[in-house]
Amino acid sequence: MAATPVMQLPVISECAAENCAYNHDHTCHAAAITVGDLSSPVCDTFMGADLEGGEPSVTGRVGACKMADCRHNTGLECHAPSITVGYEEEQVDCLTYVKT
User: Fold this and answer.
1) Are 98 and 71 within 8 A, CB to CB?
2) Which residues of the chain register pLDDT less than 70?
3) Which InterPro entries does this one have (predicted)?
4) What is the DSSP string of 1-46?
5) First and final C-alpha spacing in the chain
6) Which of 30, 44, 61, 100 has the fewest Cβ atoms surrounding its Cβ within 10 A?
């Protein structure tokens, strides 16, 4: 399987994790995030901090997804058109995750 070109990686259409260093006005500005910790679709890139991270001109994308049981996952890469990140109870998760 060929690698997905960076510009075709799924966009993070919205992020509700306002206390993340990469979040500015509900937009993720990390170049690429990693989703999953093998048991839940947590945003592994989430960083609660007073610092501002990321690149303001960049809209975040999904670089890798460890949730092999998600219907959008092929070869540990997300193939959803876009994703939403937000809170699932107290954890920052990919809300687009759908278990197969």
Assistant:
1) yes
2) 1-7
3) DUF1540
4) -PPPPGGGSPEEEEE--TTBTTEETTEE-SS-EEE--SSS-BBTT-
5) 21
6) 100
